[in-house]
Design a protein that fits this description.
about 375 residues, alpha/beta, Rossmann fold, seven-stranded parallel β-sheet, 13 helices, globular
Length: about 375
């Protein structure tokens, strides 16, 4: 191995686990491998106990890590599995160890393992600092994990501000501003824009903070002026869909909605995005979002609420729209402008020019500079 080639341990979820964190790790690993380094995933055996994951199966058995080696070495909520992970990572003799941070639930295992690997350089990629849901002892757990880092790379300005607001200076001073790269398109269909109806897409795991209830109310307002409006709701439900179904029934929206209430793997993404002309993120809280990266990968503009770091990835009226949170009427107004003024083509041109700023190559280089 030449001196410029690094052994890199990526610790945390990777395929076959579902979700944005595993997908992010996979693309980062591929980029590091393409740059001539030796990444290896040290993956979970199990991610959550079932009672903490009401969204269904945690695995996508169709996904894998490609040519990047992977071992499933520990379960984050079972401390007696952590020593084996430390041994396997030490045996790999990494120059750099990368942990993902996004929930206090994983902080004890990440912090304990990272502390035992001090001979290697430790980088935490912080997808969130403050979690969307409440967790007991969240501040203490977060501080314990992030204190083990040599460097903390934040994926949005909002996260960077949260690091400095919620963590003591000795930890916050390790922060470095990064970004969430744009995903490459997956399995592009042969035909683009196959659904010619004015179509919106709500995509991703359905949780209360993501504001689907607000989008449904906005859809009812849009339909008054655009009766043919169509909304695709695609994603696994975290908990019960009943509250949303009640809104759909009360507002008589079923004829305007297509439900796909299941996990959608990366090989199916193209179908849903390319049937849509606008992806909507009506979130009540947020940091950054991989959904924006997915949408831009198919050159589809985004309508998002101005919360957290979402505004950092939207050039208003060029790559998308920003509206005030929890304001269905304002959301409806932006949707109507988009379709009535036929803005899709001009926005797609802007998105294509924008994507080069947020490449996986640039993020990988930023991380490697921490070795």
């Amino acid at each position: 191995m030449n001196k410029t080639c690094k052994r890199i341990a990526i610790v945390g979820p990777a395929p076959p686990f579902r979700g944005g964190i595993a997908l992010f790790a996979l693309h980062l690993g591929k980029e590091l491998a393409n740059a001539g380094h030796l990444p290896k995933f040290f993956n979970f055996k199990e991610q959550y106990p079932s009672f903490l994951f009401p969204g269904g199966d945690q695995f996508d058995e169709l996904s894998d890590c490609g040519n990047i080696p992977m071992e499933r070495v520990y379960t984050p909520y079972l401390p007696w599995t952590w020593p084996a992970a430390i041994k396997r990572i030490r045996d790999y003799q990494p120059d750099l160890v990368i942990f993902s941070y996004w929930l206090p639930f994983f902080a004890p295992s990440s912090g304990w393992i990272a502390r035992a690997l001090r001979k290697s350089r430790i980088v935490f990629l912080a997808h969130n600092i403050e979690s969307h849901e409440k967790w007991p002892f969240a501040a203490l757990l977060r501080e314990y994990a992030l204190a083990q880092a040599d460097r903390i790379i934040l994926l949005s300005q909002a996260c960077f501000k949260d690091l400095n607001r919620f963590l003591p200076l000795k930890i916050a001073s390790k922060g470095l501003q990064g970004f969430h790269p744009i995903y490459p398109p997956f399995d592009l269909p042969q035909k683009s824009q196959t659904d010619m109806r004015p179509t919106l897409l709500f995509f991703g795991l359905i949780k209360p903070y993501k504001g689907l209830d607000l989008l449904l109310k906005a859809l009812s307002l849009v339909r008054k002026e655009l009766p043919e409006i169509h909304l695709i709701i695609s994603g696994a439900v975290y908990g019960s869909f009943e509250p949303y179904q009640e809104i759909i029934d009360t507002l008589d929206l079923s004829g305007n909605i297509e439900l796909n209430l299941r996990y959608v793997n990366e090989k199916e993404l193209g179908e849903f995005f390319l049937r849509s002309q606008l992806c909507v993120l009506p979130y009540k809280t947020a940091t950054q979002s991989g959904v924006i990266a997915n949408s831009y990968s198919y050159d589809i503009p985004v309508l998002a609420t101005n919360v957290g770091g979402l505004s950092e990835y939207i050039i208003e009226e060029k790559t998308g729209y920003l509206v005030a949170p929890e304001q269905p009427q304002e959301m409806a107004g932006a949707i109507l402008r988009h379709f009535k003024e036929q803005r899709l083509s001009a926005m797609q041109t802007e998105i294509k020019a924008y994507k080069d700023q947020y490449s996986w190559t640039k993020l990988a280089k930023l991380i490697l500079e921490q070795c």
